[in-house]
Amino acid sequence: MKLAISGKGGVGKTTFSALLIRALNDQNKRVLAIDADPDANLAAAVGIPDADKIVPISEMKDLVYERTEAKPGSIGGFFKMNPKVDDLPDAVSAKLGNIKLMRLGGVKKGGSGCICPESTLLKALITHIVLARDEVVVMDMEAGIEHLGRATAQAVDRLLVVVEPGRRSIDTARHIKKLAGEIGLSKLALIGNKIRGQKDIDFLKEHLGEFEFLGFLPYDDALIEADLNGISPYDTDSASKARVTEMIADL
Q1: Do the beta carbons of residue 194 and residue 203 sit within 8 Å?
Q2: Mean pLDDT of the chain
Q3: What is the 3-state secondary structure (H, E, C) of 176-194?
Q4: How many other CB atoms are there within 10 angstroms of residue 182's CB atom?
Q5: What are the strands of the beta sheet with 188-195, ordered from one edge?
Q6: 117 CA to centre of own chain
Q7: Which of 56, 114, 51 is nearest to 88 (CA)?
């Protein structure tokens, strides 16, 4: 499976991603976890030791230069548009059990965007991961689908959008659906998070009735405490673990 996960900041997207990754690991699946959100720390949520010391690929200047033959931070000029990336998931990933995790990092852009060595390397890497790898791939995206292009979108088995009961979260889900439609990614499903009761479920279904819901996760103080204490949500006693396992079976 190739799964991309998106949603508005603060809805619990990275917490859900971590629960999903660890549950797949417990099922003896080989998992390639991609942290594509510069504002999140998926490694810490998964429970990888020394997560704060993982260097994002976009900041590995020697690697970017070696693969693209251009100096990181440069814009324009000549550099390889198809750099070698097939060895990177094994060479530069952090590991825990059957999980390999890669942190992409952000690319600083000026104006409307940039064509630069770092972004070219990351784009080539995502394309390889989605099209050529045989692990289960879980990508924790930004509040959108910036890292996906038309070719990779066709190979993503499901775009999972995490939502919470709230107007801004609903607006973000619709925006993500529009962006996904523009690149031909129509296989979407929602995960309702921070659900306090049936009223919250009814609210989401009423306002997002055009979507498929994969499932709902309860509002849980244990998950909030785990985040505050730097503990993986999977290492807490939470009902969400069982719910996520059920979602994997449905996927």
Answers
A1: no
A2: 91
A3: HHHHHHHCCCCCEEEEEEE
A4: 11
A5: 94-96, 99-103, 31-35, 136-140, 2-6, 158-163, 188-195, 213-218
A6: 22
A7: 56
* Euclidean distance between CA atoms 176 and 168, whole angstroms: 12
**Which residues, in sequence order, are CB contacts of 246 under 8 Å at separation 6+?**
215
Sketch out the chain's domains with CATH numbers. 2-250 (3.40.50.300)
Q: Which of 56, 177, 185, 181 lies closest to 119 in space, CA to CA?
A: 56
Q: How many residues does the chain have?
A: 251
Q: Is the pTM of this model over 0.90?
A: yes
Check residue 165 and report its DSSP letter.
S
Q: What gap in Å lies between CA 237 and CA 244, rounded to an integer?
A: 13
pLDDT tens readout for residues 164-209 = 999 999 999 999 999 999 999 999 999 999 999 999 999 999 999 9
Enter the tokens of residue 127. Answer: 């394309």
| Helix and strand counts by DSSP (H, E) for the chain | 10, 8
Enumerate long-range contacts of 21-28, CB under 8 Å, 24 or more apart: 21/46, 21/99, 21/138, 22/46, 22/47, 22/99, 22/232, 22/234, 23/234, 23/241, 23/244, 23/245, 23/248, 24/136, 24/138, 24/248, 25/96, 25/97, 25/98, 25/99, 27/248, 28/98
Q: Is the pLDDT of residue 15 over 70?
A: yes
Q: Residues 6 or more apart from 168 whose CB is under 8 A from it?
A: 8
pLDDT at 106: 77
Return the residue matching tokens 């449905």.
250
